[in-house]
Write a structure and sequence with these properties.
Length: 214
């Protein structure tokens, strides 16, 4: 995803430090202090323009959410939404999601969302897929015992790979959807990509999996 540079992006980020961070390591183990109330923390790795995470925070005020995105211009779109909503249970983190153990302490997170991640289709790039075993290990490290991972994609190859990767890692697959929008699943909140792909008639794949008890 390539976005046009937004003028004054870094100034906007600096002016709204109550909502957005560029150095999450300062809050490692202390994320609850960033929120109005102490509640379970859910994170989305790769939030894009933020439609999913903002709507989730609006729908579930009893959960604290952290939006994680590497691209500044994408995160500015999330921040713009947050400046309108001013949700007390949403924080933004502009960092590389590959380094989550630098920003979250062991057992600090209750749930993780991966939505429409880059499929990295070539086999030689498998280690870059966000459901590769090293990423799963990172997620497990920062998560509470028995935490869940929720994953959505339009890419069949990535979905099949992820099913195998999670199973081989020892995770329990709770539910799997091969056509999410054609199912009876309720409460689905779509991302911008999801709206685009589903409008073209592409099936959306989804899974919920649980890490083994620690």
């Amino acid at each position: 995803m390539r976005l046009r540079n937004k003028p004054g992006a870094m100034e906007t980020i600096k002016d709204n430090s109550q909502y957005i961070l560029t150095d999450g390591s300062l809050w490692k183990g202390k994320w609850q202090e960033r929120f109005a109330k102490e509640q379970p923390i859910h994170i989305e790795v790769g939030s894009g323009k933020g439609q999913f995470i903002v709507e989730m925070a609006k729908a579930h005020p009893d959960i604290n959410y952290v939006s994680i995105e590497l691209q500044t211009n994408a995160m500015i779109s999330v921040l713009e939404k947050q400046l309108v909503e001013q949700l007390p249970n949403l924080q933004l983190l502009l960092v590389n999601g590959a380094d989550l153990t630098d920003f979250f302490a062991e057992g600090e997170v209750s749930q993780i969302y991966l939505n429409f991640s880059d499929p990295w289709p070539k086999k030689k790039h498998a280690k870059r897929r966000l459901t590769y075993k090293t990423f799963l290990k990172t997620y497990e490290t920062i998560s509470k015992s028995g935490a869940q991972l929720h994953f959505k994609t339009d890419n069949q190859g990535l979905f099949e790979y992820s099913l195998a990767s999670l199973s081989q890692y020892g995770m329990v697959l709770n539910q799997v959807w091969l056509d999410l929008h054609g199912s009876d699943y309720e409460g689905n909140i779509m991302t911008e990509y999801e709206e685009k792909f589903s409008a073209k008639g592409q099936p959306i794949y989804r899974l919920e999996a649980t890490f083994k008890e620690k």
